[in-house]
Amino acid sequence: MTLRLLVRCGVRYTSNSENDTLRIGESVGRGLRPGDVLAFTGDLGAGKTAFIRGVARGLGLTARVTSPTFTIVNEYPGTIPLFHFDLYRLGSSDELFEIGWEDYLSRGGVCCVEWSENVPDAIPPEALAVRIEKTGETSRIIDVEGERFE
Fold first, then answer.
1. According to the 3-state scheme, what is the secondary structure of 12-74?
2. How many CA atoms lie within 13 A of 74 on its CB side?
3. CATH 3.20.20.410 fits 9-142, yes or no
4. CA distance 50 to 10
5. Neighbours of 128 (CB within 10 A)
6. Rounded mean pLDDT, 105-109
7. Predicted local distance difference test score (pLDDT) of residue 69
8. Do the strands 37-41 and 110-114 form a parallel or antiparallel pair, or are they unpaired?
9. C-alpha to C-alpha distance for 24 and 20, rounded to whole angstroms
């Protein structure tokens, strides 16, 4: 039997450009495992999708990552698949469950959820919270917090 410890983590990054945000996302993506959920918050244009493009790179994916604003979810296959959700247009968690949220959680991929604050009761408690705050035209503060099993 392997003992796994629950570790609280919190890291603050400073981004001065979209490329910085991509690199930060890539770094985070390299440490992700199947079943991980990232719950994103931040204003329109804060860089959530850019960060997720970086996560995809960190997972070794080469697909062009775009915002699923109108489709709700985009799927990117890979050794660890990426499921990119944009919940801006959802009115409730019920709508998320109707499109198969629980199935996505059990498929062994990484779920990146933009506008996670729209469905707080659907986000697993062990999800990593990624908050992106605009501090200037191109500058951002990116906080990544959560609990991880090590």
1. EEEECCHHHHHHHHHHHHHCCCCCCEEEEECCCCCCHHHHHHHHHHHCCCCCCCCCCCCCCEE
2. 16
3. no
4. 20
5. 22
6. 96
7. 83
8. parallel
9. 6
Give dist(CA 41, CA 44) in Å, integer. 10
Among residues 145, 138, 146, the alpha carbon closest in space to that of 21 is found at: 138
Helix/strand/coil (H, E, C) string of 97-112? HHCCHHHHHCCCCEEE
For residue 30 the two structure tokens come to 């390299």
Query: How wide is the angle at C-alpha 127 spanned by C-alphas 138 and 116, nearest 5°?
Result: 55
Domain residue limits, the chain:
9-142
Q: What pTM did the predictor assign?
A: 0.90
Residue 72 falls in which region: left (phi positive, over 0), alpha (psi -120 to 50) or beta? left
Mean of pLDDT values over 18-34: 95
